[in-house]
Write a structure and sequence with these properties.
Length: 356
């Protein structure tokens, strides 16, 4: 019987190939899934993965969906590189959307160029404030940042629900739980007329490039990478773990907060209870599929965006259940983790003994 044998050093070839293997395995399993639910697999794949690229509107929606995934994914990847596991990006996104909306509503009717930059600043600070809670508890009381950041997501959801049902509800909105529509000075400019993709997509690419520079060319980025790859060596070199924790949470909180601003000042144009359909959780998959590299995160965010848009298209044209998008996301993460096993291990065939 064959057995797994630990490699002398991680396989760089498998590190690059495992996302492709995971995507191929997801497609094979997906074709079986389509067959069992009564759909012709090739046609279903065309509707799911190709059709969104065939129209300008579809491409615009792909870029729009990819924007919050890039922002959240880049921030999470920086933390994961240092073994700081922030699971609460969705809560930080939600609080960023709330603080930016508060600025937009406070300056409602003011037509000035500085309203939008002020909203971006407020959104980033809101996300950082929410991320500071697990960072503080981790560094002062050694609590699990995974549990704390995850629980704070649901606190943020309840805070959002309270605000849109109460203090921030539109008094002329027929009792719907949503704020007033933002003015023109509080909305992001569109990149292309008649498409919904806006300037937040350019901002997300700039943030990914800045994150790449931070990881590749700064001492703080090097320190965080060493802390993640060799904690004992980082401790011996005197690298401060609390400093890494704070830096990781502040960066990811700020980027998640900006993602929240991109939603309320972009396609929504107001604060709504459904400001995020789980972008912060999907960004965890995006970060790992992108190999925790900022530029890889951009590519994996486009793939994840395609899963969202393709799922919606298939739901309309093929009447497939909405849960199929979550199934594809789960399959992608499952196969990626399975393929990652072979970065550190290889299959050792069993040799039959020779008997005299």
């Amino acid at each position: 019987m064959s057995r797994l044998e630990r490699r002398p050093e991680p396989s760089r070839r498998m590190m690059l190939a495992s996302p492709l293997i995971a995507a191929a395995a997801m497609l094979i399993t997906g074709s079986m899934l389509f067959f069992f639910i009564g759909q012709e697999p090739l046609h279903a794949f065309y509707v799911y993965f190709v059709k969104p690229w065939t129209t300008a509107y579809g491409v615009g929606e792909l870029l729009l969906k990819a924007t919050p995934l890039i922002l959240c994914g880049v921030g999470l990847a920086i933390g994961f590189r240092a073994n700081v596991n922030n699971i609460g990006a969705d809560g930080q996104l939600t609080v960023g959307a709330i603080t930016a909306s508060a600025v937009a509503l406070y300056f409602d009717g003011v037509e000035a160029w500085w309203v939008l930059p002020l909203m971006l600043l407020a959104g980033a600070l809101g996300g950082m404030l929410w991320a500071a809670i697990p960072a503080l508890l981790r560094t002062r009381f050694n609590t699990s940042e995974i549990l704390v950041s995850l629980m704070l997501v649901y606190v943020a959801y309840h805070l959002l629900s309270y605000l849109v049902h109460g203090p921030m509800r539109d008094p002329d909105g027929f009792n719907f739980p949503q704020s007033k529509m933002f003015g023109e000075s509080a909305t992001l400019p569109l990149l292309v007329e008649n498409l919904r993709v806006n300037a937040a997509f350019i901002l997300s690419l700039l943030m990914a490039a800045a994150a790449w520079f931070f990881c590749r060319h700064t001492f703080a980025g090097y320190r965080m990478q060493v802390s993640g790859m060799a904690p004992a060596a980082a401790l011996y070199a005197g690298f401060s773990e609390p400093r890494n924790v704070w830096l990781a949470f502040m960066v990811s909180g700020a980027l998640a907060g900006l993602a929240g601003v991109g939603e309320v000042a972009g396609p929504l144009g107001q604060l709504q209870p459904s400001v995020s359909p789980g972008y912060g959780f999907a960004a965890i998959i995006v970060a790992y599929v992108g190999r925790l590299h900022p530029l890889g995160v951009v590519l994996s965010a486009l793939l994840m965006s395609l899963l969202y848009i393709g799922g919606e298209t298939a739901q309309i044209e093929l009447q497939t259940p909405s849960a199929i998008t979550g199934i594809f996301q789960g399959l992608l993460l499952f196969y990626l983790l399975a393929a990652d096993l072979f970065i550190h291990y290889r299959i050792k065939p069993h040799k039959q003994g020779v008997y005299a």
